Amino acid sequence: MSQGHEKHQQRLEQLSFLGKTLVRRSGAKCELCSHAHGTLYSIEIPPVPELPSEDHTLFLCESCKDVVETSKLNPQEMHYLEEVIWSDLPVLQVTAVRLCRRLRDKGEAWAAELLDTVYLSPEVEEWLSS
Ligand SMILES: [Zn+2]
User: Which of 6, 3, 26, 36 is nearest to 89 (CA)?
Assistant: First the structure.
């Protein structure tokens, strides 16, 4: 087994310890779109700390996982951002702002408006600029 693979496996194991905390925090729902059916995944939001932490991890459904991890966007299905962008959970707000910026860059006017109105805490501002 390669060292990279071993590291990856180790990380996944550490991440799985966060599962219970994330289930409790999210109410077993996707933290972006609130879907409660299907598998939910622990997704780390960069920049990731040395050890996995729930403060840098979101609990997401398959479709939101895809949107966060790839360049795929489904603008019509992403209006949940109008709510979650106001979250007081920094990792969730950071992710919502990043997604809104991507939507804005694709010409979605509602995402641009949202970015103009949202208040970001200094912690979130700092995270976004890192
Ligand atoms: Zn979702």
Answer: 26
